[in-house]
Known about the structure:
This protein is an alpha/beta fold. Helices cover 42% and strands 14% of the residues. The chain is built from eight helices and five strands; from the N terminus they run βαβαβααβαβααα. A five-stranded parallel sheet has the order 3-2-1-4-5, sandwiched between helices.
Amino acid sequence: xxxxxxxxxxxxxxxxxxxxxxxxxxxxxxxxxxxxxxxxxxxxxxxxxxxxxxxxxxxxxxxxxxxxxxxxxxxxxxxxxxxxxxxxxxxxxxxxxxxxxxxxxxxxxxxxxxxxxxxxxxxxxxxxxxxxxxxxxxxxxxxxxxxxxxxxxxxxxxxxxxxxxxxxxxxxxxxxxxxxxxxxxxxxxxxxxxxxxxxxxxxxxxxxxxxxxxxxxxxxxx
Length: 222
């Protein structure tokens, strides 16, 4: 029997961070049925998975956790090798995990096939992509074609943050009425500190600068 995908159903690739949580709220607004998938790939902080689960539980979203621990064996990077110091001085930072989004989106599509979800949602962004090649729009568009050819189905990958900087991402969370929730409940910090984080790692600097810029523009900060 031919597989039928539900056009009103979405699967969100979800880490529990600022970007993917904003995308989760975006998906909840735009689709009548939403599920989330988190990947356990030996990331620096297991707390990331716990927070992702807590948020989905909070929002009554069905949550899938897939084991992708093989990723941590494939190449040295600061997100899976806890002995490496995080640096962003190179053209491609050492927090880049080769093939991560390629594998994540492929496995997300396989799961979407099983749950009959036509729409895949991911928080990748080319504006603030830190030099990660697998966050670029041309990669996502290419992968969308490949996934559709591989499964002979018509999935659609949505990237609501693709052309937004961090200030604009906070603005989107605010527009969705979820700025405070995203600020207080997510984990973006490379040091594993939730909410506003350590304030010093590259991820915190980007996140907090975007928030400060948005609140200043809004007139909350002066």
